[in-house]
Design brief:
The protein contains 8 helices and 2 strands. α3 runs parallel beside α6, α4 packs across α8 and α5 runs parallel beside α8. It is elongated and about 85 Å long. It has a two-stranded antiparallel sheet with strand order 1-2. The chain has one domain. Helix content is 76%, strand content 2%.
Length: 260
């Protein structure tokens, strides 16, 4: 018993160093990752959650082979890089939903209707806010938040603490992934855009045949009504799309983890 106590006292600085590195890696989730970075969660709750995770993970992480238990600038920047890779990769999903909401707002004649986003403190389209909340509900309902935490825990085996290293190619890969925001948003808004375009073309052709038809008066409410119907019909496939892209971004983040 005395030997175990003395060994624990001797290894205490090592456990404390590992806990600090684990804390730095987990902090990236609280800054950028969907749901965890929400301003609706009090900072005290975020801090308590990170500390609790650190206390639970530190003993196991310290026993991982090839762990570099050294608290220096390289280790801190590397752990921060791993957390930011996970957070930045997954926040691209929110940006894609926001871009889709912007495109839909143009079709619904809501392009001038904006709300203050409490997370970014900037004005965002009203439909972008709605789609963002839909994304949060899908993440919670499908248990993707637990999948994210499990992926972060597994990352301590793939990249042991102290072995992470920030690389230039990781930033380039994140920039390429950010370019996919526009394609993903266009995919979500494509059915509504196609339906609105079909209505506009139809009204334009009818107006050519019947010049007495007030095309400008008829087109806006008719286009909005058709867009609503198509949007309600397409919402059935959106949860599956969000879950699939969240998983794809999580896998991409796992491949991009910087390590030496």
């Amino acid at each position: 018993m005395d030997r175990e106590m003395s060994a624990l006292i001797e290894d205490w600085p090592q456990y404390l160093t590992v806990a600090m590195l684990v804390l730095v890696r987990l902090s990236g989730l609280m800054v950028f990752a969907p749901l965890f970075s929400s301003a609706a969660i009090a900072p005290r709750i975020k801090a308590g959650f990170v500390i609790a995770m650190t206390v639970l993970l530190a003993p196991a992480v310290a026993a991982v082979p090839n762990a570099r238990v050294t608290l220096d600038m390289r280790a801190v920047l590397g752990e921060l890089g791993v957390g930011l890779v996970f957070g930045l990769s997954l926040t691209l999903l929110n940006e894609a939903l926001l871009f889709a909401g912007t495109l839909l707002g143009m079709e619904f004649s809501f392009s001038l209707v904006n709300l203050m986003d409490p997370n970014s403190m900037v004005e965002t389209p009203v439909l972008g806010q709605m789609l963002g909340w839909l994304g949060v509900l899908v993440i919670i309902g499908a248990g993707l938040d637990r999948s994210l935490l499990a992926a972060v825990v597994r990352s301590f085996l793939t990249v042991p603490v102290g072995q992470a290293m920030v690389q230039a190619k990781t930033g380039a890969a994140l920039a390429v992934m950010a370019g996919g925001i526009f394609l993903a948003g266009l995919q979500l808004a494509a059915p509504v855009i196609a339906a609105a375009l079909a209505v506009e073309v139809t009204i334009a052709l009818v107006a050519r045949l019947s010049p007495q038809l007030p095309a400008m008066v008829v087109s806006v409410p008719l286009k909005t009504m058709v867009s609503y119907v198509v949007l309600l019909g397409s919402l059935a496939v959106w949860p599956g799309w969000i879950e699939q892209h969240f998983t794809a971004l999580l896998d991409a983040a796992g491949r991009l983890m910087p390590h030496g």
